[in-house]
Amino acid sequence: MKKILLTSALIISALSFGQIHWNNTRFGITGGGNYSRVAQAHNPSGPRYTVQFGGIVLIPIEKTHQFFIQPEVLYYGAGETGKDRDLKGKDGYDAVYGNNYLSVPVYLKGYFSEAESEFFGMAGPRFNFLLWQNVKNTPQNRPYYNPDVDDTANPSLNGKASGFNFGIGLGIGYSYKRQLELTLKYDIGLSDTYPGLSKEPGGSDKNKSEQVIAVTINYIFK
Fold this sequence. Notes:
Elements: H1 2-17, E1 26-38, E2 48-61, E3 67-81, E4 96-111, E5 118-136, E6 164-176, E7 180-189, E8 210-220
Antiparallel strand pairs: 1-2, 1-8, 2-3, 3-4, 4-5, 5-6, 6-7, 7-8
């Protein structure tokens, strides 16, 4: 919660001290591919490949045509699978632990110059709201990986993902004429994706951090 409050305070400060030019706000669409993992959660553990897509807003700060606030509203696929290459064919290798979110990142975005075509960097918080889980083929010796398991002796021991996740997003990309943009993003989860798994046999108390690497394409309307 402290991390969320601190990040929110930074955003409010940027909005307060920067001169926002709402009249020059532009809208766009975005989409791309995700490579996701979750640290300290499942065993075996491997990547999940999925997608993200949605809408973006580009809000200018100051008059330089160089700094912007870029909020987005996305469908955002994450989670992981059991496809550990060293455990191929073992129980749980075909497992899928899919987490599907309504995601709202809010980036501070800066182009390296005021040139029409230019590289840019961006960073900001990401707020993920769980829409549904897609879990299948869980290991037989780890039934608690299934979110539907009802363990009356240990009711908190299950693989249900948290309904809300918070993280930090970083990105770098290239803009062609401030309209067509290619971005490489890295999202780092700061909250515990699977709080119930900390009490599993041999489980870790460390946060089950969800991490996503994505390549996206933006198209910004004039």
